[in-house]
Write a structure and sequence with these properties.
mainly alpha; about 120 residues; single chain; about 55% helix
């Protein structure tokens, strides 16, 4: 089915506007990589959903800490906001004091979730 520009603009004004304005660089998306294998691309696209709707726990926040002081501040903050109970906070502080901040797991780097979602 063929359309002339005038009819296309009447039927699809927004798309026509985007196509015309795209000439000056607006409405453009750069593509930084291409996958030739469709199955690999689909499996990687699906793996990014691993952390969709994931709510970090107090342990996730503690694992981002550099030292015990930061971890204690996280525990205090979460307890103050009633995101953890006083009993849970006490258990976390006890573990922190006895075993240290790395007893909760290895340190999570800034890009942890983006790296892990594509594994």
């Amino acid at each position: 089915m063929e359309f002339d520009k005038k009819r296309f603009r009447q039927m699809f004004p927004n798309i026509a506007g985007e196509m015309e304005n795209g000439e000056n660089g607006e409405n453009r998306v750069s593509i930084s990589s291409v996958r030739a294998d469709a199955h690999q691309a689909e499996s990687l696209a699906g793996s990014t959903k691993r952390f969709d709707n994931y709510m970090p726990t107090v342990i996730d926040f503690i694992r981002r800490c550099d030292d015990e002081k930061q971890a204690d501040e996280i525990i205090d903050y979460m307890e103050t906001r009633n995101e953890i109970t006083a009993g849970h906070a006490q258990k976390l502080r006890k573990q922190l004091k006895a075993k240290g901040v790395r007893s909760f797991g290895p340190k999570k780097q800034d890009d942890y979730y983006s790296r892990e979602s594509t594994v």
